[in-house]
Amino acid sequence: MTALTLSTAGAATLRADALVVGVAKAADGGKGLVVAPGAEAVDSAFDGKLAAVLETLGASGAEGEVTKVPSAGGLKAPLVLAVGLGRAPEKDEAYDAEALRRAAGSAARALTGVKKAGFALPVEATEDVSAVAEGALLGAYAFTAYQERGKDAKGPLAEVVLLGAKPRDKAAKAAAERALAVAEEVNRARDLINTPPNDLTPEAFAAVVAAAGKENRVKVQVLDEKALAKGGYGGILGVGAGSQNPPRLVRLAYTHPDAEKTLALVGKGITYDSGGISLKPAGHNETMKCDMSGAAAVFAAVVAVARLGLPVNVTGWLALAENMPSGSAVRPGDVLRMYSGKTVEVLNTDAEGRLVLADALTRASEENPDAIVDVATLTGAMVLALGNRTFGIMANDDAFRTAIHEIAEEVGEQSWPMPLPAELRKGMDSPTADIANMGERMGGGLVAGLFLKEFVGEGIIWAHLDIAGPAFNEAAPYGYTPKGGTGSAVRTLVRLAERAAEGDLG
User: Fold this and answer.
1) Per the annotation, does 350 bind a ligand?
2) What's in the keyword line of the UniProt record (predicted)?
3) Catalytically annotated residue among 280, 342, 453, 483
4) Any binding-site annotation on 352?
5) Is 273 annotated as a binding residue?
6) Which region among 86-100, 253-267, 394-408, 443-457 has the lowest average model confidence (pLDDT)?
7) Among this protein's residues, is 354 annotated catalytic?
8) pLDDT by residue (tens digit) across 209-253?
9) Residues with Cβ within 8 Å of residue 308, at least 6 apart in sequence
10) Residue 109 appears among annotated catalytic residues
């Protein structure tokens, strides 16, 4: 993992392999390039002509644009990397935290193979310190566990030195420590999502969680297939019935003596989704190792909360199964008796995520938390509605849905509130069972949310995050987002836990 330090050293005197500075388009619609605050010493080393030099090299200040220029001996660092921040803010306004986060991420990605880089970006407020540190650490991520690494292989940026934030400033130090904990846990989720499904079975996933629990004072309980059968978890067992790798339900629990609120997080953990008997066609199953992204997000968030020592109680529920076709697999037309006692007619075995989540939601509800949030790569319909970078938020409480949307925007995760239209519930009526696992095709993401709502305990505030779009990036990396697993929703869940610790759940 990339190291993070705060330094009082000036940018001109820092001994590093590279210096990162920000540049922006002139404010008020003006023309030309401006050097962002934090880089004054670097600009002086260029005789005040850094912007002109960068413009000559084609820099425009566009968000995420990276331009490299030799320091020509005017600095201790041999290389200056200028990263675009977009339009400069108006007078008396500050740079947007997400713009700083993305810029730091773009810079870190461009510094692959570099040992040490100083980041001289604008850090006028504590929020800026957090954003730059977080962006740099997330941008420096690389998944190389399955690649041969020769002696000449370039690894991610090894050390980030944050300039302009005083190490003895308690607020700045706390912001940096929080950023490090959160970024490391996001990257833990990314590692799990990127792990091939032949290695990350439900049993293997549960073992990873158990080991992390011991390291971070988090209690972990694992229900294997025998315990699931004894407990009547028909949804999880049904989905896992076709695989030689049996399912698991994992409970994580972090408690704090001063906690006044309890938050339950539930994650879909389909370690590979073939679709089952309703088999996915070629072109739709190659990335289905990512169908456990919700469980990875919940796991990482609980560990992050424990590392931060937040005064809130948090439980995490990971519903882990592998959805495969075989002679023992659930068939379309089968009826499953869920943990709640309700029966579900399975019309499509590729609508399996809602089945494992239903059991976990019921079980989580038994502990009567103040709120439940489930996270899942649940429907392609949500991707069609919101695209590849935005997750949908549904809830049984409008204020809670709004609060999560605001939190997601605050931490830089794109999201959008979605409705739960009551009229769509009728489409899941079954002549055989209490409910079917499919309904109307149009609005399929909303139908899935309505199905889950049926399994939430009465009187409990609940929200559902459908992260099917942003969980796995198949396109080129951008900002602090890599190709592959992204760790979507981890930062939102951690901030929600912080709000709960403050007594505010919307």
Assistant:
1) yes
2) Aminopeptidase, Cytoplasm, Hydrolase, Manganese, Metal-binding, Protease
3) 280
4) yes
5) yes
6) 86-100
7) yes
8) 999 999 999 999 999 999 999 999 999 999 999 999 999 999 999
9) 178, 181, 494, 498
10) no
